[in-house]
Design goal:
single chain, 195 residues, alpha+beta, Endonuclease, Chain A, 4 strands, globular
Length: 195
């Protein structure tokens, strides 16, 4: 598996290239394609999205939201679907517990929310929701609806930088996590305390 510095170098190299011609972003904006999600879900770096709490009664509502999608969500989805953004897999209208988040990236335990005018009227609900999601170890990024419509290039650039920071912090935690001795657990090697 590539190290964090190799991934970051690869990503920075990509950022300096022109983006895909099919992208609606203006030329020169970075973070359309690249390599970031190079680690496997099985290595414990992040939760499998299927391990997150799930309320099956919300399936129909999530499906309706995916079909209805507002303009900002559709613009953002076009940038991240099919692993177009840093080779990361994003899910749209993902059910987590009793909530439906706009976008979820399992590789980084990242929730992306696009906030419209209705969020100003639901501040208490949104705070409770955010507390719940962070209690699951998820990282949450909010973008105002208007920013997606008028400044998509900068939104994607910011999100790319945020993803790099998340990846680096995940790699730092892995380095600090003590590993068992090469011979296995002390009790397997007969080193348990006999007292």
């Amino acid at each position: 598996m590539p190290s964090a510095s190799e991934i970051t170098s690869s990503l920075i190299g990509f950022m300096n290239k022109k983006i895909d011609q099919k992208s609606p972003l203006e030329e020169g904006c970075g973070f359309s394609r690249g390599v970031l999600a190079t680690h496997s879900k099985r290595n414990g770096t992040f939760k499998k999205y299927k391990e997150l709490p799930f309320n099956p009664r919300l399936k129909q509502r999530a499906c309706e939201l995916r079909k209805a999608g507002n303009v900002s969500e559709i613009l953002f989805w076009k940038q991240v679907r099919n692993k177009k953004f840093l080779s990361l897999d994003f899910h749209r209208q993902k059910i987590i517990g009793n909530y439906i988040v706009d976008f979820y990236c399992p590789a980084l335990d990242l929730v992306v929310e696009i906030d419209g005018g209705s969020h100003e009227l639901k501040m208490e609900y949104d705070q409770k929701r955010e507390e719940y999601l962070t209690s699951l170890g998820l990282h949450i990024v909010h973008f105002p609806n208007i920013e997606i419509k008028k400044n998509l290039c900068n939104v994607m650039e910011y999100l790319g930088e945020y993803c790099i920071k998340l990846l680096n912090s995940m790699n730092d935690r892995k380095k600090r996590t003590p590993r068992p001795p090469a011979g296995g657990h002390p009790s397997v090697r007969g080193e348990e305390n006999h007292g």
